[in-house]
Amino acid sequence: MKFLKSLLEFYINSSVHVAIAVCCLSWITLIEFGFEPDSILLLFTFFATITGYNFVKYFGLAKFHHRRLANWLKYIQIFSFISFIALCYYAMKLPIRTLWYLGGLSVITFLYAIPFLPKRYFLDQAQNLRAISGLKIYIIAFVWAITTVLIPIVNQDAPIAFDVIISSFQRFIYVLVVMLPFEIRDMQFDSLKLSTIPQKIGVKQSKAIGVVLMIAFFLMEYFKDDFSTKKVIVTLIIAVVVSGLVLLSQERQSKYYSSFWVEAIPILWLVLWLI
């Protein structure tokens, strides 16, 4: 049992779970627009997510504890390095047009973690995009929307049609809302300078906004040119599930509520598409 618990901890802390979620969203885009699953792109996305997320999460920790790293952090560093090698391998198999988009996202990820801004913007020493007041959640939503909607389309050399733009907005809204349980959980730890949504308007109002946004997320399905009953049903189920998890989220939530269950929604989403 202890081994299984340690394995679960590594699975979550090493960003494997979130990487699977991102791959599921990319796969959903390919299915939605009539493309076959692209194993090269999906594997690249998987390893790039692990590398990017672990870089953002553990850059400061690794820098501070570089001489005496805890064992768990050493393992994650090794795993992240292997993932980086894998992403380089799969990147060489991607078209140049895709790499241009990915290059832009790489710059954003780098600036998200690395200190480079004037200290007057911060209460602490972070000095990165992540710490700018109120910006964190929108950066994450933007990167996820580009990664999981536009890049799969561009990689297929398909036009960015009206439905693609609608799906991008839907994905942006989806990520904004699923971030709320994390922000509610982290209210007691986050610097007030971050100005997260729950910090600015409170938990109840944040939940209400989350539900309203998911209603908008669902209604946007009706604006698509390629309209189908299946898409509407799947979108409705996801909107209801996300709204429910947001409404049930608390500051003192269980350890895996957000980091496992909320982040597992894309897996359910993909299963619904594949049924």
Could you walk me through the main structural features you see in this protein, from its secondary elements to its overall organization?
With 275 residues, the protein is mainly alpha-helical. It has one domain (2-274). Helices cover 71% and strands 0% of the residues. It has 13 helices and no strands. The protein has helices at residues 2-13, 16-32, 39-64, 71-91, 96-113, 136-155, 162-178, 180-185, 197-201, 203-219, 229-248, 257-261, 265-274. Helix 3 (39-64) packs parallel to helix 5 (96-113), helix 6 (136-155) runs antiparallel to helix 7 and helix 10 packs antiparallel against helix 11 (229-248). The model is unreliable at 120-124 (pLDDT under 50).
Key terms:
275 residues; 13 helices; mainly alpha
Question: Separation of termini?
Answer: 33 Å
Helix amount: over 70%
Q: Main sheet, how many strands, which sense, barrel?
A: none
Residue-averaged pLDDT: 86
- Principal-axis shape equals globular
Assembly of the depicted chains:
single chain
Structural class: mainly alpha
Number of helices: 13
The total count of strands amounts to 0
Order of H and E elements: HHHHHHHHHHHHH
Q: Hey, roughly how much beta strand do the residues contain?
A: under 5%
